[in-house]
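Here is the promised in-class demo. Please do not try to memorize the tokens; focus on the logic of going from shape to residues.
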């Protein structure tokens, strides 16, 4: 049974500012109805550390979609609006590993992570209002971190993995929920955070904000 129902969300119109099928699947587990409206703006990394960077990325995505929705007349319909922005980064020795540019880049990342531990951070931003006026917009941003350790991969295993489509739409060039799972030695923290959305943390943050009850 899903923990939430439509009535628990105070009639918010909920928009997920992401095209990630993994985030869509995770958010659907709440049982809340939501729409998909991916952000399309350029990702600009800014911040003094990895945590600030990933939260800023999530903020920019949520703000872009919120502003677009408000500009299209939503603020006139008196319906509470919530936009959820999220971004995930993989960090190894202070280097942020994004999605690979090509096969060589994917090989470099997997080789670097092979036999080592790294951190995965997901930033989440909630942009929300009562839907009556943009003056009442509230913003809440947080991040979740998970440590992931890989077994060592042989050159043959690396070549086999980067020859499939799986690495190329994922930060760090791997998906923990896919075929690469056989190389994951262990994790410390939230598994869903590595997939792309810290679902339990998101749920409890929304409860504390009074968005759901």
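The designed amino acids, position by position:
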């Amino acid at each position: 049974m899903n923990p939430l129902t439509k009535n628990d969300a105070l009639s918010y119109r909920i928009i997920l500012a992401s095209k990630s099928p993994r985030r869509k699947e995770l958010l659907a587990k709440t049982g809340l109805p939501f729409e998909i409206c991916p952000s399309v703006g350029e990702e600009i990394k800014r911040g003094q550390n990895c945590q600030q960077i990933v939260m800023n990325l999530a903020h920019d995505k949520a703000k872009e979609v919120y502003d677009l929705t408000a500009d299209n007349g939503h603020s006139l319909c008196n319906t509470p609006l919530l936009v959820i922005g999220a971004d995930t980064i993989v960090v190894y020795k202070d280097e942020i590993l994004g999605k690979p540019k090509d096969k060589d880049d994917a090989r470099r990342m997997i080789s670097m992570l092979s036999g080592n531990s790294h951190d995965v951070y997901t930033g989440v931003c909630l942009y929300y209002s009562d839907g009556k006026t943009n003056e009442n917009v509230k913003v809440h941003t947080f991040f979740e971190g998970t440590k992931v350790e890989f077994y060592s991969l042989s050159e043959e295993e690396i070549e086999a993995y980067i020859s499939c489509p799986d690495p190329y739409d994922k930060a760090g060039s791997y998906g923990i929920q896919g075929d690469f799972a056989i190389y994951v030695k262990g994790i410390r923290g939230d598994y869903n955070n590595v997939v792309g959305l810290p679902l339990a943390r998101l749920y409890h943050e929304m409860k504390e904000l009074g968005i759901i009850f």
